[in-house]
Structures are given as C-alpha cells and as structure tokens.
Design a protein that fits this description.
This protein is an alpha+beta fold. It has one domain: Butyryl-CoA Dehydrogenase, subunit A, domain 2. The protein has 2 helices and 7 strands; from the N terminus they run E-E-E-E-E-H-E-E-H. The strands form 2 sheets. A 4-stranded antiparallel β-sheet has the order 2-3-7-6. The protein has a 3-stranded mixed β-sheet with strand order 1-4-5. Bound molecules: flavin-adenine dinucleotide.
Length: about 160
C-alpha cells in the first residue's frame, strides 16, 4: 500500500498554496506542517509527500520551490508524525496528518529539489483520468442494477 500526501487545509485545487515547510540539514530535512484528506496512511509503509523547500514568495514561479520526499511512515510515527483518522462513509481510510519536527533523510528526496510540482502532476493527471473512468463505469453499473431491480421488484 502507498499514500500520496498533497492536499492541505490551506490548499486544494491550487496545489501551489501548500505551506508544509522543510528545513535542510546536512543529511536530512525537518518537516513541519499538516496535510488533510490523505488516504490510506494508517495502512501504508511509504508516503510520497509534497513539501515546500522554498517559500512561495521567494520563488520566481509559484510552481517552483516544491519537492517530493519519500516518507517511511512507521519511522515518522515514532518521530513526530501524528495520524488522525477522518471517519466518513467512503472507503478511502482518509486521515489528517500533523508533522512536528519530523526528520526525513536527504537521500529520500525524489530526484531534484524544487521540481516536485512537475513530478506530482506527472502521476496525478493519469490517476485522475483513471479514477474518472472508474466512476463513470461504476455509475453505469449501479444505474443498470437499480433499474433492473425496480423493474423486477414484486410489491404485495
Ligand atoms: C475521499 C477523499 C480522498 C482523498 N485522498 C487524497 C489523498 O490521498 N491525497 C491527497 O493529497 N489528497 C486527497 N484528497 C484531497 C483532494 O485531492 C482534494 O479534495 C482536491 O484537491 C480538491 O481540493 P479541495 O477539497 O480543497 O477543493 P477546492 O479547491 O476548495 O475546490 C472546491 C470546488 O471549487 C472548484 N474550484 C477551485 N478553484 C477554482 C477556481 N479557481 N475556479 C473555478 N473553480 C474552482 C473546484 O473545481 C471544486 O469543484 C482526497 C479527498 C477526498 C474527498
């Protein structure tokens, strides 16, 4: 299982407004901030986490300055990460995440610092198209089932 941490309370459709911050040390980053609506973190070993390595106001373009870190969730839980489940009627196992000085090894940086927005979009665009196809076919299936049941159902 894997988790994908992008969405924050202050950012949704506009991903460039993420605020989760990092401080770079010799061989690790220190992560502070929060994420919300992140699926499956209670059941995953690894999470791809989008962070700001440069504040938005210091970047030439607002899509610059974001990076992706691979977080070992069990290690992070023992070192400043809190996972809070959000109970909803949907099987995504949604959670809220709080990072309080969580160390992540510098070698867990995905490829290049500052290029994270492009890496995330590369996967996310394909994922969203797949999900849209799934829900369109789900909708067709449930409408057929409901219509067949309504036509066959015997009353009294
Ligand atoms: C069940 C569930 C699971 C999720 N799992 C994950 C996950 O695993 N990882 C993760 O990172 N995120 C996850 N998310 C978060 C999801 O990616 C966000 O909900 C999504 O990015 C939209 O952000 P938002 O909810 O803040 O909506 P908003 O950004 O507030 O958008 C609300 C509505 O306004 C519209 N809108 C926004 N801006 C504009 C604009 N400028 N012009 C016109 N219309 C606009 C949007 O299209 C939308 O219809 C999950 C969400 C849910 C509900």
């Amino acid at each position: 299982m894997q988790a994908f941490g992008v969405k924050e309370p202050s950012s949704g459709t506009d991903t460039t407004r993420i605020r989760i911050s990092t401080e770079k040390h010799d061989d690790h980053y220190i992560v502070n901030g929060s994420k919300v609506w992140i699926s499956r973190t209670e059941h995953s070993d690894l999470m791809l986490l989008l962070v700001r390595t440069t504040p938005r106001e210091k970047c030439a373009k607002r899509t610059d300055g974001m990076s992706v870190l691979l977080v070992e969730l069990r290690e992070a839980l023992a070192d400043g990460l809190t996972i809070k489940p959000i109970r909803i009627m949907m099987n995504h196992s949604s959670t809220e995440l709080f990072f309080d000085d969580v160390p992540v090894p510098a070698e867990n940086l995905i490829v290049e610092e500052g290029e994270g927005f492009r890496y995330i979009l590369d996967g996310m665009n394909a994922e969203r198209i797949l999900i849209a196809a799934k829900y369109v076919s789900d909708a067709r299936y449930f409408i057929e089932r409901a219509a067949a049941y309504a036509a066959e159902r015997g009353l009294w």
